[in-house]
Amino acid sequence: MSFSGNQKLSPGRLDPSLRLLACLVFLPFMGTGLWARILPPQAPTRIQESPPPPKRSLKSSRIPPLLSPSLLTKANLLAKAAGKSLAALQGPSGKYSLRQTELPAPVAVTALASLALLSLGELPGRTPLGSHIEKGIRYLLDNQDRSGGPEHGYISDPSDRYSKMHGHGFATLAMAQVLGQLPRDESPLVTRKELRQALVDAVRLIEKAQDRTGGWYYTPSPTGHEGSMTICMVQALRAARNAGIAVSIECIQKAVRYVERSQKPDGSFRYQLGSERSSLALTAAALSTLDASGRYDSKALAKGLEFILQSPQLRGGPKVFQLLDREGGGRFPFYERLYLGEALFFSRDPKPFRRWYGLFIRRLEKTRTPGKGTWNSRRYGEAYATSMNLLTLSLPFQYLPIHQR
Questions:
Q1: Is 4 within 8 Å of 44 (Cβ atoms)?
Q2: What's the chain's Rg over C-alpha atoms?
Q3: Residues 48-84: pLDDT tens digits?
Q4: CA 116, CA 258: separation in Å to the nearest integer?
Q5: In whole angstroms, what is the distance from residue 325 CA to residue 337 CA?
Q6: CA–CA separation, 361 vs 359, rounded Å?
Q7: Alpha carbon distance 202, 168 (integer Å)
Q8: How far are the Cα atoms of 57, 207, 313 from residue 230, in angstroms, in the given order?
Q9: Domains delineated in the chain
Q10: Angle 333-345/351-367 helices, nearest 10 degrees?
Q11: Residues whose CB falls within 8 Å of the CB of residue 230, separated by 6 or more in sequence, listed in order
């Protein structure tokens, strides 16, 4: 779903159990082209909240359920256990523990963990784990460049060698998602005014770092481009725009053209322009980006979805799913499953997502850590793997604005 700048971004005032029940109904795929149709607004001094939408009827026999009640119950139980264990990994500064991790990336992981808790319906100041979201956002704000120099607005930790612009993009996304969900009374850790200014500065940094090709690279400057980074930036900008932040239309249009030009004849998407390297993960991420930009009817989207539906992971069943669930070589299974889940979830046909999600739930049940309910990544750690799995697991819950159909 596309959001206009003055729409309410919080998931609503309903009890969490009722909001979960609402996910049993397949919501029609809605929206119009966001970036091509809507000019960037003047940044308002505060977010204007509109009245809650009218309640949807759950009695229509003409709308088939997206997922079965039993499958959603399993998903909810997995999510609750993992969410509590994820929150326990947070340190006093708001940063998440990355012990025994080959590639510690605290900025990216803290942002993803904050998003994961938000995706479970947790809210700052209103739910049991809400304080952990606030602490995570506080850590991101404390590590934003405020120098007024060329990297002003960049979110990075001096001890973090691996997050780079991916971390900045995820941090921008997390701040945008939480901005409209802070309590009305100013929070003692994060205020709306402070967060909004930080988000504006983060967006301006992204715009300045765009390469002439329309893509982004690992550094906060226009020095190169690659597909996964570009996808991360587009989703961050889309979320910021939905939160009421002015975003350059030209920047978005160039980025979307970059993504579309990266597509190969077989429907897959390249790692970067000029390269023949492509993958299922990059293709799924590219489709999520085109969805985020409002290109719902583009030929590139249809062709990419066809490539995904013909892939072994969609056609091969549980054994192939288990085989692909590895971090060997160039594989990134947690990244892949999140974007694959998003691409299928936003598809007009719910059947592929329904089938894939069932396999995904069974895989999560078999691979979680006994007694904790978390998952682990040898490369990026327990908090990263758990956050990515929770973001995928929570897609049908639709608590995150970016995951609302």
A1: no
A2: 20
A3: 444 444 443 333 333 456 888 999 999 999 999 999 9
A4: 28
A5: 9
A6: 6
A7: 8
A8: 39, 11, 25
A9: 16-34+62-403 (1.50.10.20)
A10: 150
A11: 214, 215, 216, 255, 258, 259, 289
Strands 269-270 and 278-279: antiparallel
The angle that helices 106-119 and 69-87 make with each other, rounded to 10 degrees, is 140
CA distances from 67 to 27, 30, 115, 397 (A): 12, 19, 23, 11
So what's the pLDDT on residue 212? 95
Structure confidence at residue 100 as a pLDDT band (50, 70, 90): confident
The CA-CA-CA angle for residues 203, 243, 142, to 5°, reads 55
pLDDT tens digits, one per residue of 240-271: 999 999 999 999 999 999 999 999 999 999 98
| 320-329 contacts, C-beta under 8 A, 24 or more apart | 321/359, 321/360, 321/363, 322/363, 325/363, 325/367, 327/377, 327/378, 327/379
Question: Cα(317)–Cα(197) distance, rounded to whole angstroms?
Answer: 47
